[in-house]
Structures
1.
Amino acid sequence: MTMDLFQDQPAEQYSERIVEGAVVLRGRACDSDRDLLDAIAMVARTAPFRHMLTPSGHTMSAAMTCCGQLGWVTDERGYRYQSEDPLTGRAWPDMPPPLFKLANQAAREAGYPDFMPDACLINRYEPGARMGLHQDKDEQDFSQPIVSVSLGLPQVFQFGGAKRNQRPENIPLGHGDVVVWGGPSRRFYHGVLRLKEGEHPLTGRYRYNLTFRKAG
Ligand SMILES: O=C(O)CCC(=O)C(=O)O
Ligand SMILES: [Fe+2]
C-alpha cells in the first residue's frame, strides 16, 4: 500500500491507494460525523434497521436500512434494488444532503467526478457481525464507483481481486474513513471481518457503514 501525504490537509486526512481505482481516504467523514449520524437516525425512524434474509435462507448479521431513490434488498427471491421498503411498503426516505455531499466529494477526490448516487445502503454491525467476501454487482452502470463510509467502532475491511480465491488485503477502517473503488477494481471482492467488542463515544457498541451506489 502506498501512502501520499498532502500538505494542505490536516495530519489525520491522507489517502492510501489500495489497487488501481481503489483508495482509502482516511478521516474524510470526521468533519460531518455528527450530521451523518443524525441523518442515519432520521432515516431509521422511517425505515427501521432490520436483518434481511439471504436467498439461501441465512439471516444477515448486519442490520440494514436504505435511503435514496433505490434501496438494496435481499430475501428468498434474491438480491435486487427496489424503490419501496418491503417492511413498510413506502418509498425509502430521501438521501439526506450531508450524505450525498460527502459521497460526491469523496468520489471526486478519488478521481470519479460527477458521482450521483441514487442508493445508500446503511449497514449497522454489532460485535460479532461480519460480511463475507462478495462483489457489488446488482447495479446497472459499472462505470460509477462505490463510496463506502465507516462510522463508529473500527472493523477490518478486506479487499481482494476480481476472483473470489484471490487473497484479500486486510485494511483496518476507523471512524470517518472512506473507501472508494471503481474503474478496474469496481467489481473486486470485498467484505468485513467480525466486529470486535468495543465502545465508541458517538456510536456505542456499533459500527455503521454507508455504501453509496448509482444503482439505476
Ligand atoms: O461494511 C463495509 O465496510 C462493507 C459493506 C459492503 O460491502 C456492502 O454493504 O456491500
Ligand atoms: Fe459490498
2.
Amino acid sequence: MTADRRWGREVLSGARRVVVKIGSALLTNDGRGLDDAAIGGWVDQMAALHRRGIEVVLVSSGSIAEGMARLGWHSRPSAVHELQAAAAVGQSGLSQCYETHFARHGLRSAQVLLTHDDLSNRKRYLNARSALRTLVQLGVVPVINENDTVVTDEIRFGDNDTLGALVANLLEADALLILTDQEGLFDADPRGNPDAKLIEEGDADDPRLDAMAGGGGVLGRGGMATKLRAARLAARSGAVTAIASGRQPTVLTRLIEGESLGTLLHPDHAPLAARKRWLAGQLQVRGTLTLDAGAVSVLRSQGSSLLPVGVKWLQGSFRRGDMVVCVDESGARVAKGLINYASADAERLLGQPSQRIAEILGYMEAPELIHRDNLVVL
Ligand SMILES: Nc1ncnc2c1ncn2[C@@H]1O[C@H](COP(=O)(O)OP(=O)(O)O)[C@@H](O)[C@H]1O
Ligand SMILES: N[C@@H](CCC(=O)OP(=O)(O)O)C(=O)O
C-alpha cells in the first residue's frame, strides 16, 4: 500500500481547518485521571496551528476516566448510571483542563457536548453546524465530546473516532487528525504482533485495510476498526485522515508540515453533497433490503432511485422515513437511505413494477422505495 505514491503528504500542509481527536488511551494516566502535562503539550501544538491561521476543532475523550479519578473509583463501573455520573463529574475537569491550557496562549475554548440525536435530526444537525461555525469564526476552539450523561446505549457514538469524523463532515474540515497510543495503523494489531508493519499511506476505502484494523485497548473503545471507519466517513466530505501517536513530540505540527508520520488515509472520491453526508453519517438503521444484481448495478453506476422491482427480501420493522440499509445477495452493504413505505407495505411491493403500487396498496406515496436524493451509495 505504500508503493502507490499518487497521494502525497503535502495535502496536510494546505489544510485550513482541522479536527483533532484525542483518544482515551492517551489522555489518561493509565486510567487514573487526566494527564495534565500531556494535554498541555497538545494544546501548545494546537495553539501553534491556530497562530498559523489554521482553524482547530478538538474532539476529546476522557470524561469517564477523569470522573472515576475524582470519585475515587479504581475500576470502571459497568452500570450505565454510574458511567453517566462519572462522565458528568469528569467532563467539568476535562473542560477546565483545556480552558486553562488554551488560556496560556490567549485562546478561548468552548465545551460542546453532542449526542447521536443531535446529528441525526436534520434541524438539530443544522443548528449544531451553525453554532460550531460561529465558534470557529470567533477564533474559539470548540472542545467536543459525546454527552455521555444523557445518551442511552442503543443510540450512541460510543467511540469518539466516529464523532470526530462526523464533526469533520459537519464543518467540511480538510483533515481529521486522530491521536492515539500507537504510531498509526499497522497491518496487524501491534499489541499481539511485534512484527506488524506501519501502513504509511493508503486509500481510506481500500477494503484490504478491514482485515488489519482490530479492536481497542483497555482504556480506548473502538481501536483501529473505528478509526478506519472514521477515515471513511471523513473521506465523504473530502477530508484526509491522519492516525498518529500523540506521544510523538510536536506530532500535530509535524503532520501539518507534511512529515511522514503515522498513517495517512486519503479520500478516493469527490466529496458528497452535505445532505448525502448527513445520510451517510446516520448510525441508526431500522431495516435491511436485499437487492438483486440489476438494482445493485444501477444504484452504483447511475445513482438511480431504488424501485421495488429490484428488491428481493426485506428485514426489520420500520416506518416511512426511517433509515434502511441496502445489501447485495451476499450481504455486502451497497447503500443507505430513507424509505418511502413502512415495512408492512414495502413487503407487499417487493419485486413489483412501480405501476402496480396503487393497485396493491390502495395508494401510492411515490413510485420508488427510496428516492435518489435520500439515498447514499456506500
Ligand atoms: N492494526 C492495528 N494497528 C494499530 N493498532 C491497532 C490495530 N488493531 C488494533 N489496534 C489497537 O487499537 C488501539 C488504539 O485504539 P483505542 O484503544 O480505541 O484508542 P483511543 O482511545 O486512542 O481511540 C491500540 O492500542 C492497538 O492495540
Ligand atoms: N466519551 C467518552 C470517551 C469515549 C471513548 O473512549 O472513545 P475513544 O477515545 O475513541 O476510545 C469519555 O469522554 O469518557
